[in-house]
Design a protein that fits this description.
Length: about 400
């Protein structure tokens, strides 16, 4: 598309495309798990410093923030990319496949980081904005416990690097390469992880009447939990309870003392979220009591709903349409997947976007997934133009 009021456009990233591709492929070949992103963080910090950003490292772990102030406007914006990889054995035959056996960028965080670095270089070179830009490179988005967003916020991110709005994006398999997808309101589900320990009384498998079998109670609890969805939740409200792990005993002729259920709960509505957590406790305790057992219920972590604010989403849609044309801008479907970007949205308005990775792309968290390099200039131009328009001179 032609230039519009001299803001960033796709052609501005023609010469930079190879550098972004090289960065993305290096990161793909050198993935690091949550809370272990030392090498990725160092690479990011080095590049940002070289382009003139004020850089602060080790925020909430290996988090990096690059800040650039131009002009005298009090307005400020943040753009976030995640950096961690997954514990997956890569099955691609790429020349740049993972060199860290059993660790893989199967969720596109290598691409997210390269996209934001591409925009960072352009914005530092052109400085066509008035205000403060905060670039957040976040660790541990995939962490099963406290996530990188939570840790960075607890480490003072919002106070140390104040911003008026925040944006982020995620690659989207199934959409054409470079298509930009948005959605206002609840978009990605809250995810709560809950452990239930069922405590019985151990004994001999031949004499179950002398024991209290926690395995039998646990199995009934699993079935009972599904009734919460079908009988307590409005059919028009999306919710999922998945028990992904049952651990109990080591021998077939022994009734164990305990059985442990580990589950995730996905919801898109705050009221439904609290209802389900309450009912899980009530149902588990009642079923355990019927078996003569007891339960200990432990919430292990929680990610809120990604609730994109209307104003910020509309603004991003306007930028995307200017950049790639209305035919290449769409609405992404509500997903029961989750994203710790939601933690930022609990404190500041913003929007989480999707960037098409190809209709034939492997799925996320698949050992054959690969971020599409042709999408890099689109993502970088989107961030550059959005920053320039938000902090317009």
């Amino acid at each position: 598309m032609s230039r519009n009021n001299d803001f960033a456009c796709l052609s501005d990233f023609d010469e930079q495309k190879q550098a972004m591709t090289d960065t993305r492929r290096y990161l793909h070949a050198h993935p690091e798990l949550s809370h272990q992103e030392a090498g990725t963080a160092a690479l990011v910090a080095e590049k940002l410093k070289g382009w003139g950003y004020e850089v602060v490292e080790n925020i909430g772990g290996y988090g990096v923030v690059g800040r650039l102030k131009v002009g005298d406007s009090p307005r400020s914006i943040a753009v976030r990319a995640d950096m961690d990889a997954l514990p997956i054995f890569e099955e691609t035959e790429l020349d740049y496949k993972s060199l860290n056996n059993g660790v893989m960028h199967a969720c596109g965080h290598d691409g997210h980081t390269a996209v934001l670095l591409g925009a960072a270089e352009y914005l530092a070179r052109t400085r066509h904005f008035n205000g403060t830009l905060n670039l957040i490179f976040q660790p541990a988005e995939e962490a099963s416990g406290k996530s990188g967003a939570q840790r960075m916020i607890e480490d003072g991110l919002l106070e140390r690097f104040p911003f008026d709005a925040i944006y982020g994006l995620h690659t989207h398999p199934g959409a054409p390469v470079g298509q930009i997808l948005l959605r206002e309101g609840p978009s990605l589900a809250a995810a709560d992880m809950i452990d239930i320990t069922v405590r019985g009384k151990g004994g001999h498998a031949a004499r179950p009447h002398q024991a209290i079998d926690p395995v039998a109670a646990a199995c009934h609890i699993v079935i009972g939990l599904q009734m919460i969805i079908s009988r307590n939740v409005d059919p028009f409200d999306a919710a999922v309870i998945t028990v992904g792990s049952i651990q109990a005993g080591d021998a077939p002729n022994v009734i164990p003392e305990d059985a442990i259920l580990r589950m995730t709960v996905r919801t898109l509505d705050k009221t439904v979220r609290e209802l389900i957590k309450t009912r899980i406790t009530e149902v588990a305790r009642a079923i355990a009591l019927a078996h003569g057992a007891s339960v200990v219920i432990t919430p292990t972590s929680g990610v809120p709903v990604v609730d994109n604010s209307v104003k910020e989403t509309a603004f991003a849609r306007e930028i995307a349409t200017e950049l790639v044309g209305e035919d290449n801008v769409g609405i992404f479907p509500v997903s029961s997947g989750s994203e710790d970007f939601a933690h930022y949205l609990e404190h500041r308005p913003g929007s989480f976007l999707r960037l098409g990775n190809g209709e034939e792309s492997a799925l996320l968290h698949n050992p054959n997934f690969n971020f599409e390099d042709e999408a890099l200039p689109v993502g970088a131009a989107l961030w550059a133009r959005l920053v320039e328009r938000y902090l317009q001179v």
